[in-house]
Amino acid sequence: MLTLENLSKHFGGVHAVDGVSLTIHEGEIFGLIGPNGSGKSTTVNLITGLYAPTTGTVTLDGYDLTAMAQHERTAMGVARTFQNIRLFGNLTVAQNLWVAQNGHEQRRAHFLPRWFKAGGEHSPDIDELLKFSRLHSKRDLPASALSFGEMRRLEMARALASNPRVLLLDEPAAGASLEDGQLLAERIRDVRDRGVTVLLIEHMMELVMGISDRIAVLNFGRKIAEGSPAEVQANSDVRAAYLGSKHKDEELIHA
Amino acid sequence: MDYFFIIDFLQSLVDGLLFGTTYALIGIGFTLIFGVMRKLNLAYGAAALAGTYIGVAASLAFDAPPPLVFLLSALGSGVIGILVYYCCFRFTPTHYPMASLLASVGMLLFIDEVVIHASHGMPFPYPSVFRDATIELGDVWIRGDLLFVFGICVVAMAVLFWLLYRTPLGLATRAVSQQPRAAALCGIDPTRVNLLTFGIAGILGGIAGAMTAAAVGVISPIIAMGLTVKGLIAVVIGGLGSIPGAIIGGLLVGAAENVFLLLRGVTERDIYVMLLLFLFLTLRPGGLFGSSAGRD
Amino acid sequence: MDFYFGLAQIIGVHTLLGLSAYVVLLTGQVSMAQAGFYAIGAYTPGAMTAMFGLHILPAIVIAGLVSAGIACIVGFPALRVKGLMLVVATLAFGEMVRLFFFNLTWQVERNGELVGPNGAEGFRAIRYFPQNGWEVWHVTVFIWIVVAVVMAALWWMDRSRAGAVLRAVGHDEIAAQSIGLNLTAVKVGAMTAGGFIAGLGGGIYAHTVTHIEHGVFGVLLATFAIAYPILGGLGTVFGTLIAVLFIQGFLIEGLRFMGDWRSLLFGALIVLAMNLRPTGLLGEHAPRMKHLLGLRGRKTETLESKEAN
């Protein structure tokens, strides 16, 4: 469904992403892991269009997204969350979802009601999403008044409000405890059960290994392994990448 | 295209390039402040003007010789620059750029009004040096006073480069402008660096103001607006945050201004300078030396 | 009595100017071009009523549309840059418009006299109101009806998705793009709406003063335009109105005995206000009733300190 072909991004001499090819199937949870600086976040930014790739293409269901602007990709069904949460703190919780409702149904509405109908944040769609995210009681609070965990949930709900086909979660467990991680795993499965394909970029191995259907591993911008969690765990290159880099760090510290 | 037109054209170009160094200095000042704070200080031109008036006050009060007038202008503007930092930037929130921007506009009005009240809005004579000396290159003359302006501005830039690239202070300034948080972790106090930057930028502005007044021979409050707008245009053309860009931009603005003065007359001159800016914004939004469009 | 009507007219016109900047500020863009759009709005209907005898209503609507059109055209190149570069670009645009009118001479003969913009002399005799028997209170009521309509429209917009979208873009452009908002469309839209409102204000201004000249539309007016909404706060349209009432009603008129010192006071007031209350009087982060009653959690502070980083 979502296909990356020979995708590269070079920042000057740094090859942040170097010839990565991936295919993500409809309805799966796909994990993308790798040590720090391996190019995971850059890959997300290439898929959503925040960066233009140096080479390669991104396609969704055969449609080439590479030349599209970010908002056009969202309209095609790509949504994301951010590693460092980016909510609209000046809007209420419900309004945060409302502005994101730019998806397919809304586009068919006429210009005036779509933009200038007041009070649209009380629609059933938004209520449903708020209940799904357990934020219903906070709907009229400013988003800036939420707790950290609530902000994460709101950001995921906002991404879902744009009615995506594929949701990119950029380190959703960053800053969360192990316990929260288990709740998060359930939430990600719930999202998948709504019919949204999930691309999960994560650091926390337990989370990714537990819920992903397939996993790809990046190191220094290159894909070094791909397969089921068990296959990836058994791969010697992956072990070397994770353990090897740790050894190097230790050497540096002791040197 | 007759011969005299070409001579006039070259003459305008030379005068403009020489005078353009003052815009370059103002542009460098904007860029320095932007570099360390990621903020625009719109009171900068007004501070330069006020500093220049301090020089005038000295020359009126005890008949100070021109070099002392220039020096006092520069130092006065530096002090006012630091004052602007405390009034507009030190205590306004960093994540809400509108606050410091509007505060600096308020400061611009305030300084401007103080100068107008203190001087009763009257233009004052300003010492001009080498007024009668000229160097003749064929039919193109290089005016001595403009050459002096050019020389002083170049010296100021050279001193600035020495400060930035050869002293610990410059190292700290460059560190803060590239990685503010990392610099703070290394024990560099950003407030002190900001303060020094405002002071240095203020001195550069004072020199630019003094040299503008010296080139014309009089000083009036009107020059603040010209300095501000032209300096900003120089920065945009060169790329916000780039010192070489500000220099090239300043020279370009000076040259363009004088050439359009010749071609279209004094009332229409600035329209074309602004059009030049729009051309750059459309074709090269990051400026000549800017890394990317619209980083802020 | 006429004095108070005159003051009410000034306040009304400046409210329109402030609201035009308010719309653009919601998207996080500081536009110093509002005085330019105001000038375009002043010269256009002035020309239409005085030179070609059009009725006032279509004249000011056309003024709004012309300003909106120019704002839209300028918006595209200008909004390719953002933040501080935009301040410079719009400042330059405003000056360009002013200088254009400084150089514009285009007069036609009407009823035996020459009317039309005449360069540095300005544009005299825009006498639609006296010629058609409008009394000063008619004009004042007319102005405030326009102001009320514009404020109601903006207040409504704030409760619609359009308003939320403007604020979303103003808060975080990257997040706004990620949820499918077209930044260029939103910003140019806001700029166009701002241009329209400034054009209306300028059109009315030209008819109340009967004589306009380029000097009025300088950087000082552009500063006023952005100062009203920033001082008043971007939380609601009423902030702008309160700021205009305070600055024009109290600072400029109430302190008339202070003469030229008022400009100095105005500058000092802005500096002081931005240090003490950077988000303005009725800012987005200003405590509202609900929060004062104790519903505002401690969590707010954690976010504010997070934003500061």
UniProtKB/TrEMBL annotation, chain A:
Biological processes, Gene Ontology terms: D-alanine transmembrane transport; L-alanine transport; L-isoleucine import across plasma membrane; L-valine import across plasma membrane
PROSITE patterns, per the entry: ABC_TRANSPORTER_1, ABC_TRANSPORTER_2
Leader sequence segment: none
CDD domains noted in UniProt: ABC_Mj1267_LivG_branched
One Pfam family linked to the record: ABC_tran
The organism of origin for this protein: Palleronia pontilimi
Protein name: ABC transporter ATP-binding protein
GO MF term set: ATP binding; ATP hydrolysis activity; L-isoleucine transmembrane transporter activity; L-phenylalanine transmembrane transporter activity; L-valine transmembrane transporter activity
GO cellular component terms, A-Z: plasma membrane
Keywords: ATP-binding, Nucleotide-binding, Transport
Entries under InterPro entries matching the protein: AAA+_ATPase, ABC_AA/LPS_Transport, ABC_transporter-like_ATP-bd, ABC_transporter-like_CS, BCA_ABC_TP_C, P-loop_NTPase
Residue ranges constituting the ABC transporter domain according to the UniProt record: 2-245
TrEMBL record, chain B:
Location of this chain's protein in the cell: Cell membrane
Record flagged with keyword Transport: yes
GO cellular component: plasma membrane
Alphabetic keyword roster: Amino-acid transport, Cell membrane, Membrane, Transmembrane, Transmembrane helix, Transport
UniProt-recorded Gene Ontology molecular function terms: transmembrane transporter activity
Regions that span the bilayer: 16-35, 42-62, 68-89, 101-120, 140-165, 195-219, 231-259, 271-290
InterPro entries (alphabetical): ABC_transp_permease, BCAA_transport_permease
Keyword Methyltransferase: no
Domain of life (superkingdom): Bacteria
Membrane topology listed for this record: Multi-pass membrane protein
Main location: membrane
GO BP term, pick one: amino acid transport
One Pfam family named in its UniProt record: BPD_transp_2
Similarity annotation: Belongs to the binding-protein-dependent transport system permease family. LivHM subfamily.
Protein's name according to its UniProt entry: Branched-chain amino acid ABC transporter permease
From TrEMBL, chain C:
One GO term describing the cellular component: plasma membrane
Cell membrane listed as a keyword: yes
Name of a matching Pfam family: BPD_transp_2
Listed InterPro entries: ABC_transp_permease (IPR001851), LivM-like (IPR043428)
Intracellular or extracellular location(s): Cell membrane
Membrane topology: Multi-pass membrane protein
GO molecular function: branched-chain amino acid transmembrane transporter activity
TM helices/strands, residue ranges: 6-28, 60-79, 86-106, 136-157, 188-206, 226-252
Domain of life: Bacteria
CDD domains per the UniProt record, alphabetical: TM_PBP1_LivM_like
Keywords: Cell membrane, Membrane, Transmembrane, Transmembrane helix
PANTHER family reported in the protein's UniProt record: HIGH-AFFINITY BRANCHED-CHAIN AMINO ACID TRANSPORT PROTEIN BRAE, HIGH-AFFINITY BRANCHED-CHAIN AMINO ACID TRANSPORT SYSTEM PERMEASE
Protein name: Branched-chain amino acid ABC transporter permease
